[in-house]
Amino acid sequence: MPDKHNADRRAFLRRASAAVAAIPVVSLMGTQSVHAADEKAEDGHAHDYVNDAADAADHPQFQEGARCDNCAFWNANVDAPEGWGGCFHQDFQNVLVNEAGWCDAHVMS
Length: 109
Ligand code: SF4
What we know:
The protein is built from one helix and four strands; from the N terminus they run αββββ. It is of the alpha+beta class and 109 residues long. The protein has two domains: 30 residues; 78 residues, Irregular (High-Potential Iron-Sulfur Protein, Chain A), CATH 4.10.490.10. It has a four-stranded mixed beta sheet with strand order 1-4-3-2, with no helix packed on it. A hairpin with a 7-residue loop joins strand 3 and strand 4. The longest helix has 27 residues. The radius of gyration is 16 Å and the shape is elongated. The site of iron/sulfur cluster (SF4) has 14 residues, from loops.
C-alpha cells in the first residue's frame, strides 16, 4: 500500500511541477514584436507545427481539441490578419501562427 501512495504522490508532484514551470515561461515572455507584416509560420516551422491542427491528428503528442488559440502560448494581442496571432514560445518569435494551428509544444490554457 505505501508503494501505491508514493507512486500517486510522485505523479502528483510531477504534474504540479510541470504546471508551475509552464506559468513563468509564458508570463515572462509577455512582450514580443510580432506584427501583421511578419512572416506566417509554415507547416514544419518548429515543433512539428501545422497551420491546421486536423493535420496533426496522427501525431503522438496531439490531444483532441488542441489548437493554437487554446494554447497558453497564444498571443491574441497582435496586429495580425484575421485568423492569425502571435506565439510567446521562443521558437515562434517574430512569426504569426494560425489560430487553428498546432505544434508539439502546445499547453492547454
Ligand atoms: S506553442 Fe501553442 S500557440 Fe505556439 S505554435 Fe505551438 S500550439 Fe500554437
